Amino acid sequence: MNDWIAAVGRYAQRVHAVAGGEHHVASPLGAWLLPALTASATPDPDPGLTEALGVSPSQAADVAGTLLTAPHPLVAAATAVWHSGHVDRAALARWQAGLPSATAVEPLRGQDDLDRWARANTFGLIKRFPVSVPPRTALVMGSALATKVRWDTPFRPAPARALGPASPWASRLSTVLRTPRHGHDAYVATTAQAGDVIVHAAPATLPGAPGTLRVMSVAAAPGVEPGRVLAAAYAIGAAARTPLSALPLGETALWDAREEMSSGGDSCQAVLPCWSATSDHELAGPGLGFDAAARTLAPLTGGGGFQARQSATATFGRYGFEAAAVTGFAARGGAPAPRLVRSVELRFGHPYAVVAFTDAAPDSPWHGVPVFSAWVTEPEDLPESHRGGH
Hints:
13-stranded mixed β-sheet, single chain, six-stranded mixed β-sheet, 2 domains, Antithrombin, Chain I, domain 2, alpha+beta, Alpha-1-antitrypsin, domain 1
């Protein structure tokens, strides 16, 4: 894994800690991009940027530039800087020369203009820019990430009781999602962060567009704290898969493992609920780099106060996944014979983590990048209109 991707994973733990164990969605990558872009504003960035970003400011700025200059085909990405008459024009010009060409630099015209930018760069999913522009605002930065994709193979409907008798959601819902017979990946893994976890991966694409978005759902045993499960989800690619034959037979909160006579092989499927989330995150606290970004930009802005917030939304359903986040920063101034096989159904029946990773060629800067992540505690029924078919 690239060191900067691991750094984004560590940064994500701090972003999700802002929301705690509440149901929420975020884009830690979208937040990380903004302090990364400030690194080129001065030859001597604030030392707090290195600590927050997890890599050197110059490397972070290079990564941000690479991602924004060649976005992933399934993830719309945009950044912008807006400036007022309270900014130092000479310092702004020097910074602009080092920003990615894809980052728009424009005069600050007001809140309505920022709101239009948020809608235009998130397929209309985010209606308002997350920070305001009070008098004497010198500079505003924004990042937007958005995706609207369909699963390569849709889920099948399943009765909510399939979540298992230990699930607190089984009696609250009527219909959930079961993986299709082919096309999704479901397995059990052992992680350093959260112990044994169950994993479901759903690939999504767009017709005619290269690359894949892979949405990973990861659940640990009930009671494992959200931060540990999210950390495991971000590092799931490095986790060792557990052979199905090694699982104890019977029902647990995480799986139902059985043996049966079949001419096929061992199989594993998953049952999980629909969910959606809309969240607003305050990002001005320590450890997220925006305080260091404000100090780095002080030669442009005069060193006044700052705001940093993110608005995010996501929907996970039978046919696809959509998500968007806008982060704002404002600174003032042939069949074999039958045999005994293992059949396992994984049960996402209690709070769990979700991370959406981009798939691309190994030499692409977007290979294995975590774009959106969520902590799911409020499942939803599969809509009536999606319960037909197979």
